[in-house]
Amino acid sequence: MGRGGARAGAGRRPALEWDERFWVGATCEGLWNDAVAAAKNASIANFRDQSDLAAIYAKLAEKILPDGRKVFLESDDFEAHAYDVEEERRTLARMADDDESPVPRLFHVHVPRPMGKRQPIIAEVAARASERYAKPVSRRIVRECWEETRAALNSG
Questions:
Q1: With contact defined as beta carbons under 8 Å apart, do 139 and 123 qualify?
Q2: What percent of the chain has pLDDT over 90?
Q3: Helix 53-63 crosses helix 76-92 at what angle (to 10 degrees)?
Q4: Which pairs with CB-CB distance under 8 Å and at least 24 residues apart come from 28-32?
Q5: What is the model's pLDDT at position 145?
Q6: Beta-carbon count within 10 A of 59 CB
Q7: What pTM was computed for the model?
C-alpha cells in the first residue's frame, strides 16, 4: 500500500516490516489466548467447586469391587447412587423439584471474555517490540498489527 507521493517508492517508510508486524500480531494473539485459557480454567474450577459429583463418584469407587460391577448394578447401593447423581445434576441445572423434563447429562460452562486484558496486552507487546526491534513501536501500531494478524488467521 502506498504511503504518499506519485512516484514508486515515495513517501514514508513503514514503521515495521511485514515479518515484524506478524510477530507483533502473533504475540498479541498468544497472550490473548493465554488469558482466554485462564478464564476457561477459572470457570471450570468454579463449576467443580459448585458440584458434588466428584465426591459422589469417589464414594462410588469405594463401593465397587474390581470384578463386582454386575453385582453392584443390581444392588440397592446402585439405586442410591443413581438417585444422588440425578439430584446433583438437577441442582446444577437449576431445575425445580416438580419439573418432569429430562435432566441434562452435559453442562455448558460459560467462559467469559477476558475483560480488561486487551489494553495491557497491547502495552506489553509494544514494550517488547520496541526492545526487540530497537525502534519505537506505538500502541496504535501494535493494535493494527494484531487486527491484521487476526484477519489473516480468520480468512483461511
A1: yes
A2: 41
A3: 170
A4: 28/121, 28/122, 28/125, 28/142, 28/145, 28/146, 28/149, 29/146, 29/149, 29/150, 29/153, 31/121, 31/124, 31/125, 32/114, 32/117, 32/118, 32/121
A5: 96
A6: 14
A7: 0.70
